[in-house]
Amino acid sequence: MRQLRQPRLAEIVAAKLRDDILEGRLTEGDSLPRQEHLFTEFRVSLPAVREAMRILETEGLVSVRRGNVGGAVVHLPTPQRIARTISMVLQTRRTTMADVSGALLHLEPTCVALCAERPDRAETTVPELRQVIAEQHEVLDDPKQYAMKARRFHEKIVETCGNETMIVIIGSLETIWTAHESTVWLEASLNEQAAPDSPVARKSLRAALRDHEKIVDAIEAGDSAAAVRLASAHLSATRRSSLESTKNHTVSTELLDNLDYGSSR
Asked: What is the pTM of this model?
């Protein structure tokens, strides 16, 4: 019989710490005990502890600080962090933004339907979406800020759909699309004077905002069929303008670095 390979000590230490993080015993921003303490706790060699830290750092669950103030800080997995991994995979496959948009054209309306079908939508989904719409009204004269709030509306649809699996997976794709569309809207806003028919033209902004309001009205009424119909039509229209000159652009992980997660989440 073949002899089964015993897990390396570093993998055992990493597995225990990973479980502590994923089960909530360690939370975002917590500091792991110093390596000397882990060495004593697990009764393994210091190199094994260091390798365990490298494993967790590679997985994105900790960031290791070197020097006199060294230590490891915990980072919980989020759709935004997962988006980076997915983005890298898509980039290596030379996936176009039209392909990402096509996926969301099918997936996001499903989240809209789930929002409309939530029995607690009046206390959860609807207030969140109304708040984003109110923020859109406030920045209607600022195309750059409006674009950010408009994307936030679509992200919020996913975040409040109530299905955790879809929130994570589709939320990651929304983040990738937001990174792309943000650059498109920025370039369009810079050229607005020369291109009055750009996506950021005031008329287009008002039309998109009306679409958002109609979608939320349908969600609030619990009319999932109408909400899906409105969302599908809105997405098809807005994606045409965003993809007009960039449909062959491939996914770029670098664009994620320009997103400010803290201000929008």
From this structure: 0.79
